[in-house]
Design goal:
42 strands; 731 residues
Length: 731
């Protein structure tokens, strides 16, 4: 598929150049990534911003849709409660109660702290900003890889406004998204928005006789805004609910190995027989799995405009409850040679409550110095239970199961985090600006562990204990920006990042409850942001990042011929990654805009040895989930009609290179590319739009998550071809 598309893209570009079409002006993108409103092109940081129009037209609903549109970003969901986000090689794949994410997600300045809650519903959004590289100065804890800043629309204080969008598609898809906002009296305005998505499953489980890999999400957001002359208050509440079937995990043969016997057992015979001649739309897992999540939050953002600056207070409380139970092997006959089990069952319950408080002071000194200073506090408690069950007769997943087949553990972790931060921007000469900042972070975790060893192989010791540890770091940042004209920014930057230590999930025994060391990173970056002739925008970043004591979890065999596997979370030593990221937009004329990016990454572990595993020496190997090449090409076309209405068309091609998914040499997630298209008609007043769209039009089978069990590889596949129609109405 790639060669015809590549030919089409080159042909289109050469034709446009030959025609000499007239260029138009680029749109200015205003962001708040540096905690004040700024033009994206003037911020000395590698940032990708997706606008509301892009989000809606591309049908972006979660981080999976965003990841393929941002350089260096990958998203790998083991389940809706176990989301792995990686950015420039920094990732967190331990989902236990005592570890944190390497990439931080913020919704309206509120930190989402748990792996089970890091993938919010993307609706009612003004934009999404992705900051690449360590953001250890202005953002909350654990932004060693980067930060994803999700910004919702503000209540309209001027007039009543409404937007509604309804979609119908294959697999009985039916979506409804809506927003109503406007003034409600005095200096107050309000907003209510909602999103409802539902779709049947596209995978046929031939063992259970049901459909899996469906979609069922409901979300709501309400806001009140008081906009006075010197005081502003934004009060927000949101709720998100997910209730879906199993993820339909499927055993596959992938990667490379010198073991000739591996391929004979790579895909268990029971799956191969039941799904003979079928592809990713056939599963045979014996567990009637599910995933449920209820998440809600309240926040108050208060701002005072004072004589010498602006004081901002952000107070937030969030609660997330996740429950999921899914098959692990994808086959009714497990590949375990020691015994033939009818199921390998993974059942998890995760409850987290979180309180955060942030104060910011934003001000200036004279005409040439702007600065931000602040304090940040977090209190989080997570109660997480997980069990592994191979019981044939019952799905009872408790530590007192009669047959003792269940390995069970519970972790209750309490995290307290404090930080003080500041950043100063000094325009010390014409066209030159120096930025200096720093953040001191201090984290403490107290964890209670309870474990019961059954007849399985994950937990091998029954024990209880309580462990606590503290970590701290100072993470500075320096950048120098040169602006030779109003349309160009050239910068060099060095920044440090920090991720607190923690405690690994699924400890095999009490000796595995020792605390992990904190992660640290330093990033060196050169970049340019240029608008050429007002019609062509090129942003480029050349970076080199060095990581120290990366936290890595592996679930793999302790020996090459092991029956199953065990969880291990460890500090894998030093690592480095370097690369280049190019983003471009060309407004060819009033009708046509071309855009896209290319990212190259070269990563490797340093001197890394992981004792007690089948492949202990990882020195010189690529980092996990760090594809070498990645790109995205978009073409947007608009054709005005005689009656004032307009036709629109969009074509998008996204490619992600192959990447390591686990430490085993056969755990390679294959490369994939996706082709999307959309055509639309918009009424002359802009109030009504009808669109026909298709995603993954080549119907490519591609893997979004991959892991190992014993010597087998199990995969979660991405959606096949999806198509439908969307009607949008606004007033």
């Amino acid at each position: 598929m790639r060669d015809p598309i590549r030919f089409f893209a080159l042909f289109l570009a050469s034709s446009l150049l030959a025609d000499g079409l007239i260029a138009q002006e680029l749109e200015e993108i205003v962001i708040t990534a540096e905690r004040r409103q700024e033009n994206l092109q003037e911020v000395p940081n590698a940032i990708t911003a997706l606008s509301r129009l892009t989000i809606e037209q591309a049908d972006i609903n979660d981080l999976a849709d965003i990841a393929t549109r941002v350089p260096g970003l990958t998203f790998s969901p083991f389940s809706p409660g176990q989301n792995i986000v990686a950015l420039r090689g920094a990732a967190s794949n331990d989902d236990g109660a005592g570890t944190d994410n390497s990439v931080a997600v913020f919704v309206d300045d509120v930190y989402l702290g748990r792996v089970s809650n890091i993938n919010p519903e993307m609706f009612d959004l003004e934009r999404v900003e992705v900051l690449r590289g360590p953001q250890g100065t202005l953002y909350g804890k654990n932004t060693i890889g980067g930060a994803i800043n999700v910004v919702s629309t503000r209540p309209n204080t001027e007039e009543a406004e409404g937007r509604f969008r309804a979609s119908l598609g294959n697999y009985a898809r039916r979506d409804l998204v809506g927003l109503v906002t406007g003034p409600i009296g005095g200096s107050w305005a309000g907003k209510a928005s909602f999103s409802y998505r539902k779709r049947d499953g596209w995978v046929d489980n031939v063992f259970l006789g049901k459909q899996q890999k469906d979609d069922d999400v409901k979300a709501f957001r309400g806001q009140l805004l008081h906009a006075g002359e010197t005081f502003e208050a934004l009060l927000s509440g949101d709720f998100n609910q997910l209730d879906i079937e199993d993820m339909a995990r499927i055993p596959v043969a992938t990667g490379e190995t010198g073991d000739p016997a591996f391929w004979a057992r790579a895909v268990p015979g029971s799956y191969a027989e039941r799904c003979a001649g079928r592809g990713a739309d056939c599963s045979a897992g014996p567990v009637d799995g599910y995933a449920k999540r209820d998440a809600w939050g309240l926040s108050a953002k208060l701002g005072w405009s004072l004589a010498n600056g602006e004081l901002v207070s952000i107070t937030a409380y969030r609660e997330n409850e996740s429950d999921w139970n899914m098959d692990s092997t994808g086959t009714p006959a497990s590949p375990l040679p020691a015994a033939v089990f009818s199921r390998v069952n993974d059942d998890i319950f995760d409850l987290t409550d979180q309180f955060t408080q942030e104060f910011r002071w934003i001000s200036s000194i004279g005409e040439n110095i702007d600065y931000v200073a602040g304090l940040w506090y977090l209190r989080e408690e997570t109660d997480r239970t997980e069990c592994f069950d191979n019981d044939v007769a019952t799905s009872d997943c408790t530590p007192t199961a009669d047959d003792g087949a269940t390995d069970w553990y519970r972790q209750i972790n309490r995290t307290t985090s404090y930080a003080a931060f500041g950043q100063l921007d000094w325009a010390f000469a014409d066209a030159w600006e120096l930025t200096a900042g720093g953040r001191y972070s201090a984290d403490k975790k107290v964890i209670d562990n309870d474990a019961v060893s059954g007849d399985f192989v994950v937990i091998n010791q029954t024990f209880s204990n309580s462990v606590s540890e503290s970590w701290s770091a100072f993470t500075p940042k320096f950048s120098l920006a040169y602006k030779p004209n109003d349309d160009t920014t050239i910068y060099g930057a060095v920044s440090w990042g920090f991720k607190s230590g923690g405690f690994g999930a699924a400890p095999q025994g009490i000796e595995f409850t020792e605390p992990l060391d904190q992660e640290e990173a330093v990033n060196y970056e050169l970049g340019i942001k240029a608008d050429l002739a007002g019609a062509f925008r090129l942003n480029a970043a050349l970076f080199h990042t060095e990581y120290q004591d990366l936290q890595t979890q592996t679930f793999g065999p302790l020996t090459a011929a092991a029956a199953f596997g065990t969880f291990q979370t460890f500090n894998s030593g030093d690592a480095k990654i370097q690369g280049v990221e190019l983003e471009a937009t060309w407004v060819v004329n009033e009708q046509l805009t071309l855009s896209g990016f290319y990212a190259f990454q070269d990563s490797e572990f340093g001197d890394t040895n992981i004792p007690g595993t089948a492949f202990p020496d990882q020195s010189g190997q690529d980092l996990i989930r760090a594809p070498e090449n990645k790109f995205n090409i978009n073409a947007d076309y608009s054709l005005p009609l005689a009656d004032g209405s307009a036709l629109g068309a969009n074509l998008s091609w996204r490619y992600t290179d192959d990447q390591r998914a686990e430490l085993e040499p056969w755990a390679i997630q294959p490369a994939f590319d996706l082709l999307d298209a959309r055509v639309s008609w918009t009424r002359s007043d802009g109030a009504l739009e009808l669109a026909l769209w298709g995603r993954n039009l080549a119907d490519e089978e591609y893997i979004t998550h991959l892991y190992t069990i014993a010597s087998s590889v199990v995969a979660v596949f991405g959606d096949p071809i999806m198509y439908g129609a969307t009607l949008t109405w606004q007033f």
